[in-house]
Specification:
Helix content: 25-40%
Order of helices and strands: HHHHHHEEEEEEEEHEHEEHE
Strand order of the largest sheet: 3-4-5-6-7-8-9-10-11-12
Oligomer: single chain
Strand content: 5-15%
Mean pLDDT: 85
Number of domains: 2
Shape: elongated
Length: 380
Amino acid sequence: MRFVALRRRQLPLDELDFDRIVFGVAGATAAETARMKLSLLADIKVSAIDIACGLTLAQRRKLHIAGEGDVKRLFDQIAEKRAGWRVVDGTIPPAAYRDAIDLRNTVNSGQFAEHSLFKKTLDGALTAEQRKLCAQFGGIERLVELIWIRPSTDAVPTIREIRLSGTPFGDDGMARLETITTLQTLHLDSTHITDSGLRILASLTNLEILDLERTRIDGSGLAHLHRLQRLKSLQLGHTRFTDGSLAHLGWLTGLKTLKLDSTPVTGRGLEVLKSLPQLETLSLCDTQVADAGLAELREVKSLRELDLGATKITDAGLAHLGGLSGLRVLDLRRAAITDAGLAPLKGLANLKFVYLYGTRVTEAGIADLQGALPGAKVIR
């Protein structure tokens, strides 16, 4: 083994050199950054186990505490080694160097191995049924700062939900999802997914909930999802989704909820939504939808909740909503609506909530609408 030559007199090992060995980098934040990553790793590992065998809230808490305990114990060891090492005859003693390498390996791979507090807590916390479920998985692997469950060769796992929200997960990792055909719920919001990665989802025909909010898509990749006939909820808010991609939604005939809030959508092409017979909830909040766009919605008779807050609609546009007799919730907050525009709403007898905060509607206008809809709550 080759050892690192240092100064010729006996001094405490320079902390920057220590950090380079243990953390791979040096600097004031090296240890804290590594600690945060390991804490995150523990949290994600709990989530992975939860996916595998369904943990109770109490079990999750125990495992989180155990994981934090392992992290603390590791960094206590690191602090002790940093404080006690000495240079002897110009070199790092072999035992000290081996200790540094061992610590580095633990930091890189996580400290939740066989003799960890996490492992002991897990062994004692699971029920017999949960152990049976977890036995379907051959191991747990790291994937882009994440924990990933790898199916064993002699069992077919049933994974219903995966949540990757707010992680650096991107198109390169999507192939890992392709064979999990039992998946029903997939949260990819705030990840690095693009339209190219969406083609992998074509095989997940059991998907019912798909969250793509705050991703890097423009909607063109939704063309790959035409086979997802069981999809009930699709969230595309805060993306670059455009009118041109609306046509891809016409195949998703099982959709009940569609969220397009804070996208560049103007409303041209919304007519395609009439081919979705089960669509009940539609959010167009903070989009460029104007009166012409509402004209394309008048045939979407299945709608129960419609969010038009902070759009470009005016009183004239509300006339197109008069035929949506099933509406129960209508959100018009921060839209350029006045008392004159409320008349078409008086015939919507099923309305339960009307939100008018930030509009130009007066108290008299609210009273008039409330009188026509005694079963509704008009909020301003």
